[in-house]
């Protein structure tokens, strides 16, 4: 399926409120980068990326987490606390953030995970080239 068709299908499946949040937080940009990363794979993607991301020495487990994060972004996940990114942990989230050319501006706790040990992080970020901002939510599970 073409990227534009897949993007339109995902956006058509969002509620108007969720779509507004996603669009405000760079959904189309993140969707595009995720789509290309998954289609090309890390090596080919790196060769065409302005900052050569993901870095050549990225740990294979982090590459798996980047892939998992990209798949979630393609599903329209991560833009509200009701539909956070999951299974990435802290390391995977930062690897994904780096691949998107964003840096963390502010992190805050948006809540606890229901029925699990963990926290819901609200991550405010800015793009290193043009300063645009976005917010993503990341569910981080942990064991005590």
Please outline the helices and strands.
Layout: H1 3-12, H2 16-24, H3 27-40, H4 42-48, H5 60-74, H6 89-99, E1 102-112, E2 118-127, E3 133-141
Antiparallel strand pairs: 1-2, 2-3
Helix pairs in contact: 3-4, 3-5, 5-6
How would you explain this protein's 3D organization?
The protein is of the alpha+beta class and 144 residues long. It has one domain. Helices cover 46% and strands 21% of the residues. The protein is built from six helices and three strands, in the order H-H-H-H-H-H-E-E-E. The chain has a three-stranded antiparallel beta sheet, with helices on one face. Helix 3 (27-40) packs across helix 4 (42-48), helix 3 packs across helix 5 (60-74) and helix 5 (60-74) packs across helix 6. The protein is globular and about 40 Å long. The mean pLDDT is 94.
Mean pLDDT: 94
Q: What is the helix content? A: 40-55%
Overall radius of gyration:
15 Å
Which secondary-structure class do the elements indicate? Answer: alpha+beta
**Beta-strand percentage range:** 15-25%
- Number of helical elements: 6
Oligomer: single chain
SSE pattern, N- to C-terminal = HHHHHHEEE
Q: Major sheet: size, sense and barrel closure?
A: 3 strands, antiparallel
Tell me the count of domains: 1
Spatial strand sequence of the major β-sheet: 1-2-3
* Shape label: globular
DSSP, total strands: 3
**Low-confidence residue ranges:** none
Q: What distance separates the N and C termini? A: 43 Å
Keywords:
144 residues, 3 strands, alpha+beta
